[in-house]
Write a structure and sequence with these properties.
With 78 residues, the protein is an all-alpha fold. The chain has 3 helices and no strands.
Length: 78
């Protein structure tokens, strides 16, 4: 799976789970500053990504942007 494929799926999950406009989600999008997500919102997204890719995401790894999350998923899903 490519980074682009993971990004597209993560973007789809963010848009679907949190009713965010698709054009607001880029690799540099910051979860808190740009999307105004709280901890529960972020947990919902991470939970769905874990289910989708059958991986476990450590939430204390300091991921602040969509791109950081995508990179993390690509590494864990290898």
């Amino acid at each position: 799976m490519t980074k682009e494929e993971v990004f597209n799926k993560v973007k789809e999950i963010i848009v679907d789970q949190l009713d965010v406009e698709a054009d607001k989600v880029t690799e540099t999008t910051n979860f808190k500053n740009d999307l105004d997500l709280d901890s529960l919102d972020i947990f919902e997204v991470i939970d769905k990504i874990e289910d989708t890719y059958d991986i476990e995401i450590e939430t204390d790894d300091g991921m602040e942007t969509v791109g950081e999350l995508v990179d993390y998923v690509v590494k864990k899903a290898e």
